[in-house]
TrEMBL record:
Gene name as annotated: rhaI
Gene3D superfamilies given in the database record: Divalent-metal-dependent TIM barrel enzymes
One GO MF term: L-rhamnose isomerase activity
Xylose isomerase-like TIM barrel domain boundaries: 53-266
Name of the featured protein: L-rhamnose isomerase
Organism: Plantactinospora sonchi
Keywords on record: Isomerase, Manganese, Metal-binding
Superkingdom classification of source: Bacteria
EC number: 5.3.1.14
Record InterPro entries: L-rhamnose_isomerase, Rhamnose_iso-rel, Xyl_isomerase-like_sf, Xyl_isomerase-like_TIM-brl
Amino acid sequence: MTEQSEVRAALRAQRIEVPSWAYGNSGTRFKVFAQPGVPRTPEEKIADAAQVHAFTGIAPIVSLHIPWDRVDDYAKLASYAAERGVRLGAINANVFQDDDYRLGSVTNPDPRIRRKALDHLLECVDIMDATGSRDLKLWFSDGTNYPGQDDIRARQDRLAEALSATYQRLGPDQRILLEYKFFEPAFYMTDVPDWGTAYAHCLKLGEKAQVVIDTGHHAPGTNIEFIVAFLLREGRLGAFDFNSRFYADDDLMVGSADPFQLFRIMHEIVRVDALRPESGINFMLDQCHNIEPKIPAQIRSVLNVQEATAKALLVDTEALTAAQSAGDVLGANGVLMDAFNTDVRPLLREVRAEMGLDPDPMAAYARSGYAEKIVAERVGGQQAGWGA
Ligand code: PSV
Ligand code: MN
Ligand code: MN
């Protein structure tokens, strides 16, 4: 059993990265519900993200999405973030919101459009140089809607070519994080549909290419913790995009639909001591809050990951290994369930007090007056870029 002091130290050291786009207005293709007080600029998104860190103490990094967060001076944006107690994290490329990408971006049959997409990826690395970001997160909406529409194999060749050109441009401490998604917006065939495809491309590229698991990007019933365990074993798990789903890529709050799945994922992480920031795994959120207030929703999400992590840290590993070795099926399962069924909220309140935080971040944020302040100050909030 891990010592209580080690559990507390691990919880204090945990780091979660929040997405800039969670704070803007978002919705579905049916309706974007505008909320009062949402950010109008990348700076205001960062200011909101800083609130999430101020009340949770474990979310000091903010991912950017380009061009949603385009500014003239990225080094200045990084300083702005630092002044608010956070730093800029992964740069998310966007080659999916341009008329030119109707038939794909880096896999498009037209070399001119492929070049345009690649130029954007390279521009994102320039931005990383200015912000000091380590991670370039790549998700491609590329695919086809109809059998015969394009050559599946040729598209893989084009993808590999663009990835390789981007990889060559990386600095020594920079990485590509390649994200997969099993469908949408392409419906017949997606060019990076699963972890196996992402993993194969990463293997060819080299050690600075790692796979991102977006928890919302799988078919129902997929055993995500298996993918976590496998990629960890191969040293190719680069990051998570955490969120929850019921039906498709719902982007709901992590841990809200299936907290047990989140616990099982965090158990695989904790089991091999990969929670520590030095492990290189970037624990990001990728969520949109269409109907709920955004800053509290981000705070709740961070707390959900923290609770699942605390439970995973409480697994009695010695008892688990003993039961597994003895072939004690029910005993082994019971050890995991005991940890999952533990109420970790009192422990987490104590950990927060140790960190000089309010033990109840949701209530503390509500009392802070920040929500009222931004509603009064901001008029004409910006759309997240999603669900237009
Ligand atoms: C695609 O569905 C995705 O998960 C990618 O990470 C995008 O960058 C993100 O959503 C945009 O919200
Ligand atoms: Mn994602
Ligand atoms: Mn997604």
